[in-house]
User: What shape does this take?
Amino acid sequence: MTESPARSPVFEFDYIADAGLLADCHARYWELKETAPPVFWTNAHGGHWMCNTAASVTQVVRHPEIFSSRFLSIPPNPDQPKMIPESLDPPEHRPYRQMLRPFFESRAIEPLEARVVEWTDQLLGEAEAKGECEFVSTIASRLPVAVFMELFGFPMEKFDEFRHLVTSYFSVRSSPEERSGLAQQILGNLGGLIQQRMAEPQDDMISKIIVSEIDGKKLPFEELMSIGFLMFLAGLDTVTNAMSFGMRHLAHDEKLRQRVIDDPDVIPDMVEELLRRYAFVATPRYIVQDTELEGVQLKSGDCILAPLPLIGWDEKLNEDPATVSVERQFYRHAAFGSGIHTCLGLHLARMELIVFYRAWFSRIGHFKQIEKGDESCRGGSVMALEHLHLAWG
Assistant: This one.
């Protein structure tokens, strides 16, 4: 048996369970950026490469012909449910994305805004009088679920079940077997809904996707399931994380809070700046041909992780990137990805965040973080804040 060639440089880092990452994922990745090589090999999780510069991350996400999306986990899991179009490479990827794009354009999601305002007001109304809340479970994790369920066509009485499925699926404490079981439950819910809408279409997104065509053909059931699975996970976790990290920053930035209270028109800029500073996705890719990255030789068959926050933290792209400032002329970041797999739901996510911050600052205003000792982060390819205790009044 031939021994695999040695990879170098080596810098040990566990993207799922590193202690510093679980204490504060952004602080730990920032520390890596300043102390580790531009591209390095770690032996964790079967061994994989890590991007550690904006240039290397950009190269990986912009070149699917070298860095494939066929496995969206490290180590690669050939049995994971397929997620169309995220797990497809060109040219297969393009027709699916083109078919889905119209559902997520600004004008398509505009009619949802009134409902998002209603749900936000309802959630804040329940919390406001209490003077404090555990923000992740009571607000951040609830709003996106309601939006997704209404948009996609799920009955709202399944709300608590869905939220539990998503938090459990993404929890680092779930074993691969548990995660596989949760995926089957999610797929079971999706399958039931798709079959219902095939029989009786309604005015919701899944009904419209069912009757859409690619190359003159309707999508087979398995592909509808795959698209639904991706939207279920992406739609229910992304906004929760953006909101949680943003609110954690704001709890400690009185000047910015006051600025927003005095001038709510600054909120869209604040949303972009918080996304730039606290992006939370580290994208796994599978290397399909030998290549060189930042002077390092990468082999076909290896995996590489591309942490998207590094793009927003690059001094060449954003002056003084550690500082949160709404005075920037441009907010250069990749919180929603970059290249062909840029998040389809970015307009919806921005709208939810803007609506939320407007409602929060008009109703509640200033607030602070209460330390409860459980403000840990979740590592992995989608990082999250597990708890955030806030108080006001």
The first helix runs from residue 19 to 23. The chain has one domain: 19-391. Residues 19-391 form a domain with the Cytochrome p450 fold (CATH 1.10.630.10). The first strand starts at residue 39 and ends at 42.
